[in-house]
Design goal:
single chain, alpha/beta, Aconitase, domain 4, six-stranded mixed β-sheet, 6 strands, Aconitase/IRP2, AconitaseA/IPMdHydase_ssu_swvl, hydro-lyase activity, Aconitase/3-isopropylmalate dehydratase large subunit, alpha/beta/alpha, Aconitase/3IPM_dehydase_swvl
Length: 139
């Protein structure tokens, strides 16, 4: 069984823990579509390649950034932890969010929604559902 299927079977979200300039050098559209198809809900990174971060939002994936001076190494994260990230219902661009691991560690990340439009895309499940809803309400 694939990891994503195993996670789905037990109701566990799939999270990505990443380093600097996450998404650099990749085939940009598939770099965001692939994780979305695997059920990734969010990416916690030190930083993002600019267009890739926007593409993640367009696929309904939340990009989070570690706070200045923090990363997986300084927080002693291995990538084997489970993450509980519960963004507030009224999230704002750049808002801080508390991340708690299944090992009891907590740290703060910034939600990397940079505009209200990106929030609208995310709130609709991504850019495609957003556009479809816009088209179906314009009669």
């Amino acid at each position: 069984m694939e990891v994503d299927e195993r996670y789905k079977a037990v109701g566990q979200d799939t999270n990505v823990l990443a380093g600097v300039e996450y998404g650099s050098g990749s085939s940009r559209d598939w770099a965001a579509k692939g994780p979305m198809l695997l059920g990734v809900k969010d990416v916690v990174a030190k930083s993002f390649e600019r267009i890739h971060r926007s593409n993640l939002v367009g696929m309904g994936i939340i990009p989070f950034c570690f706070k200045a001076g923090e990363d997986a190494d300084t927080l002693q994260l291995t990538g084997h932890e489970g993450f509980n990230i519960d963004p507030p219902s009224e999230i704002r661009p750049g808002q801080d969010v508390i991340v708690t691991t299944n090992t009891g560690k907590s740290f703060t990340c910034a939600a990397r929604f940079d505009t209200e439009v990106e929030l609208a895309y995310f709130n609709h499940g991504g850019i495609l559902p957003y556009v479809i809803r816009q088209l179906t309400t314009q009669k």
